[in-house]
Amino acid sequence: MQLNNLVDVVGCHAEGEVGDVVVGGVGNVPGETMFDKRNYLQNHRDDLRLRLLREPRGNVIRNVNVVLPSNNSKAVMGYVIMESTEYPAMSGSNTICVATVLLETGMIPMEEPVTRFTLEAPAGLIDVECQCRNGKVTSVRFVNQPAFVYRLDATIDVPGIGTLAVDIAWGGMCYVIVDAASAGFKLDPAEGRELRLMGERIKAAAIEQLAPAVHPVHPEYPGITNLSFTNPLERVDGVLRARNAVVVSPGRIDRSPCGTGTSARLAVMHARGQIGVGERFIHESIVGTTFEAVVESTTKQGSVDAIIPSIAGQAWITQLIKVGFDPTDPFPAGYTLSDTWLEPMYAYETTA
């Protein structure tokens, strides 16, 4: 056996969504901030993402996070998020995975019953509070960067559906948010294939027909890349609840309730007066797992009204592995095949 470019990976999932964590073997990544390091990896070392996420080592339903030292004195560690087709500024399920792996592997000392620390994501500093018992992280709550609404009740024409009303919101990534029933869905797991196909079609229509979604403070962030199908809000025993299914490019469903998608939905709910500061919201995934979300406070992003959301969920470590490639392997950077990796139906909207 002769393997090159070995990296140490801790397998992990948060409420069903895989968010593996690279804890060693990457070496130095230049950059003052984690966003700088994200840009360096994207522009100069994308082979790492391709090797870990594409077949034959990875698959379309997998994310990976690279843990790196932070130059910010407030952060104990930083991380860069890698997904199938992009390097997001923020991801909730991945943050929960990173925090869990750092504590359960001893990279950060665990204090029971609660461990608090700050991480640096490409989007900025993320405060984390972990409930811990018997060496296990039983819950991770993180305070996200501000979430806000670009547009409410925008209309687009979608082939196969007709005119559709959508909201556009930022929660760490930019989302098209659409009522599932208006697109003909109940959000049943059996609808998975149709949801992902229609989700890509709706995203393409929104990007083509609506004005670009430019972040008011960080215009370098990409515009629309994700979509959230939502079921109506219900109040059960005094607590707001709802179900959603987020379609992640290149066309697959987030297995978790989606942290940035939940943040974006909270921003829409708050803008419509459906939720107040301090009120709990339980968001359910298509596989029945849940995140608990709270609007912690209100703020501004430039001149735009925004909220500070917090999201809580749990993650579980699944494996400890080393990943590399044999120098004779014909697929050192992996490959994709359209039977599972749907061909992108549009070019990503970018403002950089």
For the structure shown, list the relevant keywords:
alpha+beta, Diaminopimelate Epimerase, Chain A, domain 1, eight-stranded mixed barrel, 5 helices, 41% strand, globular, disordered C terminus
Q: What's the CATH superfamily of the largest domain, by name?
A: Diaminopimelate Epimerase, Chain A, domain 1
Assign an overall shape.
globular
Find the structural class using helix and strand composition.
alpha+beta
Total domains, how many? 2
Order of helices and strands: EEHHEEHEEEEEEHEEEEHEEEE
CATH fold naming of the largest domain:
Diaminopimelate Epimerase, Chain A, domain 1
Distance between the termini: 43 Å
Q: How many helices does DSSP assign? A: 5
Number of strands: 18
Oligomer: single chain
Average of pLDDT: 95
Task: List segments where confidence is low: pLDDT < 50 over at least 5 consecutive residues.
Answer: 345-352
Query: Roughly how many Å is the radius of gyration?
Result: 19 Å
CATH class bucket of the largest domain: Alpha Beta
Q: Report the major sheet.
A: 8 strands, mixed, barrel
Strand content: 35-45%
**What helical percentage do the residues reach?**
10-25%
Strand order of the largest sheet: 8-9-10-11-13-15-16-17
> What would you say the CATH architecture of the largest domain is?
Roll
